[in-house]
Amino acid sequence: MTDAAPRLAAVAETLLGAPLPVRVRAWDGSEAGPPGGPVLVVRRRRALRRVLWKPGEMGLARAWVAGDLTVEGDLFALLDRVAGLLWERRPGPDGEPAPAAAATGPAASLALLRDPERRAALRELVTLAGPWPAPAPPPEEAARRGGSRHSKGRDRQAISHHYDVGNEFYERVLGPSMVYSCAYWRPDATLEDAQHDKLDLVCRKLALEPGLRLLDVGCGWGSMALHAAREYGVRVTGITLSREQAVYARKRVAEEGLADLVDIRIQDYRDVKDGPYDAISSIGMAEHVGAARYREYARTLYGLLRPGGRLLNHQIARPPEADESAYRVDEFIDAYVFPDGELSPLAGTVGELERAGFEVRDVEALREHYALTLRAWVARLELHREEAVRLTSPGRVRVWLLYMAACALGFEHNRLGVNQVLAVRSDGAGRSGLPLRLRTWGA
After folding, report:
1. End-to-end CA distance of the chain, in Å?
2. Which of 106, 137, 168 is the C-terminal boundary of a domain?
3. SS3 of residue 158 by DSSP
4. Which domain holds residue 340?
5. Does residue 440 lie within any of the structural domains?
C-alpha cells in the first residue's frame, strides 16, 4: 500500500491541532496536503523516529542533517509555512506568551497523553516510524567540546568547529569579500557592494585616519583589517582563534602589500596586552563571548582603548524574555552550528558596555540588512552546492542551508535583530571627542 503520506498528514494535523501547511511526500511515494508550493519529502521512516525521540525543532533538524528529510522547491517558503507551528509565540502586552501549536516539553507531552485522539495519533506515528531503537544523531557535524563553558580552551574548540571547515567552502558561500557578517544594503547592490559598504560604514563610525591604531576583534579572513589599512591608512591588529582564518588573512595581507600596516594574530581577546588602541572593531564576534563573560569582554575592550577611543560593536540580538532566567540556547544551533554561542537583548549589551565605563553614543539597527545577506549566502551555496559537498560533506552543506535560511526568516519576522553600537571611552574630564552632530556617515 502507498498510504504513508495521508496517514502521516492526519497524525500531524491531530498532534499540531492545525491544518498541515505544506504538501508531504512519504518514502512510499504517496503524497498528501495542500497542492502547490514546496514539498516536504520524508525519504526514510527513520525521520519519524528522530522526531519521536526528540520532539520539536531538534528532531526535525537531525532528520534534515542526516538527509532523512529534504525539500523540493523553495526552502524559504517551506520554512515560512511551518515556522508558526514550531516557534514559540512572542509575549503579549500582559507578558504571557501564547503557546505554539507544536509546543514541546514535559507539560506538552502530558497534555498529549491526556487527550484520547492525540494518544491514538501518537500510536499511529509509532507504527509509521518503524523499527526502534532511536537513531543516533548525525555524528559528522556534531560539535565535541571539553572544559568549562567559555574558558579559553573551549572557546578555541567552538571557533574551530565553525570556522575551520575549509576556506574554500567559505569562499563558495561568502564570495570574494569573505565577510561573514551582516552587509549594508542599498537598492540594486550586489553582495560585494553591500559588504564593502558595511566595512566602510564601520570605518567612518570609528573616524579612522592615517596613523591610528585599530584592533579588529574576531578579524575572520581579514576583510575589515585590509579595508581599514588600504582605504584609511591605519595600523591594524587583527585577532582570531581560527588557524585557517589566520592563514588565509595573512596571505591576503601579503598579496596586497600591506604587511607593514596589518598584523594578524591567533589570539584570544583576553590575552591582548599591547594597548592602548585608538579604535576597536568587533564585528560578529561578541555572540561567541557568552553572558557570563560579557562584562569581562566589555571591560577588556575598555581597557585596551585610549581615552577618547571608539568601539564599534556589531552584534546579533534576540528579543528579551519575560523571565530572562528562562532563556535557552537553541539546541540545533548549539550542536551543529555555533557551539556555545549566546544571544543577548540589545538592552543587555548596552548595559554591560555602560557598566564597563563606555558611553554609548549611537545604535543602528540593521535587521532587514541581515535577512538580505543571508538570502544572498543561501543563493551562493545553492549555486555552488556540488563543490561545497565535495569540499566538506553533504551533512555540512545541509546544516548551513538550514541554519542560514531559518535565520533569514528570523530576521524578517523580527525574532532576531542585529545592531551596531558605537561607544566611546571618555577622557578623565568627560570629553568624548565626538562632534555635536554625530551621524555624518551617510545613508
Report:
1. 61
2. 137
3. helix
4. 152-424
5. no
Q: Could you tell me if residue 144 is inside a domain?
A: no
Regarding whether 160 and 107 lie in a shared domain, the answer is no
Please indicate, yes or no, whether residues 383 and 268 belong to a single structural domain of this protein.
yes
Question: Residues in the chain with pLDDT < 50?
Answer: 88-108, 110, 443
113 shares a domain with 165 = no
Cell of 382: 545553492
d(CA 57, CA 48) in angstroms, rounded, equals: 13
Q: Which three cell numbers stand for residue 139?
A: 555524528
pLDDT recorded at residue 294: 95
pLDDT for res 398: 95
pLDDT tens, residue by residue, 368-415 = 999 999 999 999 999 999 999 999 999 999 999 999 999 999 999 999
Q: Give domain status of residue 54, yes or no.
A: yes
Q: What is the pTM of this model?
A: 0.91
Please tell me whether residues 288 and 397 are part of one structural domain.
Answer: yes
* CB contact at 8 A, 67 and 43: yes
Dihedral sign computed on CA atoms, order 405, 157, 347, 303: negative
How far from the centroid of its chain's Cα atoms is residue 29's Cα? 35
CATH number of the domain encompassing residue 254: 3.40.50.150
Joined together, the cell numbers standing for residue 257 give: 602589500
SS3 14: helix
Q: Shortest CA distance to 333 belongs to which of 241, 419, 403? A: 403
Tell me, yes or no, whether 98 and 167 share the same domain. no
How much is the pLDDT for 321? 87
Total number of domains in the chain? 2
27 and 162 fall within a common domain:
no
* Model pLDDT, residue 325: 74
Whether residue 34 is preceded by a cis peptide bond, meaning omega within 30 degrees of 0, is no
In terms of C-beta distances under 8 Å and separation of at least 24 residues, what long-range contacts does 324-333 make, across chains too?
330/57, 331/57, 331/58, 331/61, 332/57, 332/58, 332/61, 332/402, 332/403, 333/403
DSSP code of residue 144: -
Which set of grid coordinates corresponds to residue 332? 540545533
What secondary structure does DSSP assign to 293-343, as a single string? GHHHHHHHHHHHEEEEEEEEEEEEE-PPPSSGGG----HHIIIIISTT---
